[in-house]
Amino acid sequence: MEKTVYHRHLGVYGICVNSGRLLVIHKRGGPYAGRFDLPGGSIEPNETILRTVEREFREETGLQVRTLGNVGTKDFVVPWTRDGFEHTHCHHIAIFYEVAAVSGDIRESPNLYDSLGAEWVSLDRLRSEPCSPLVTEAAYWLNNGRLSEGTTFYREWEIYEPID
After folding, report:
1. Is residue 91 part of a domain?
2. 27, 35 in Cβ contact below 8 A?
């Protein structure tokens, strides 16, 4: 029997909605490559959680945002391996914030790091497109006013090739 080894990742993410559309990025790498994902990511040294959200939005979408409030914390476990690493799964702990766009234009998103650009996507379209667990959870929150309970485990997970 194969031993389960987690790669644990803690990140901060923003849920930004405008006219019934959710702001997502096109994920470049990691277990969510080729999927819609939420803007956000790791907390850098000497950085607060709220500064992380603001920086990640600038980097991944080109937008300046204002934090409206904490939505909550949720974790996910997805099968994921990488060459040279011993882990079998990604244990992703996500801190969610609701944010509002203040300025900027996603057509000028810098396409840096893990983002191949940003897009406003209708909530209906999210049902038919490949999404990260973060986007799925954001849609759940938008529909139910709360995050789902407990850890979400994915027994099977497909990693797509990012579209350059």
Report:
1. yes
2. yes
Query: CA 69, 107, 61, 75: dihedral to nearest 10 degrees?
Result: 80
CATH number at 145 reads 3.90.79.10
Q: Residues with Cβ < 8 Å from 62, sequence gap 6 or more?
A: 104, 105, 106, 107, 108, 109, 110, 118
For the record, the structure tokens of 124 come out as: 């209906």
Average pLDDT over residues 98-117: 84
Contact 10, 35 (CB under 8 A): no
Report pTM.
0.93
Domain carrying residue 29? 6-153
Q: Which of 159, 137, 104 is nearest to 14 (CA)?
A: 137
Cα first-last separation, the chain: 38
* Cα–Cα dist 68/87, whole Å: 36
Cβ pair 52, 67 in contact under 8 A: no
pLDDT at 41 over 80: yes
Provide the phi-psi class of 104: left if phi over 0, else alpha when psi is between -120 and 50, else beta.
Answer: left
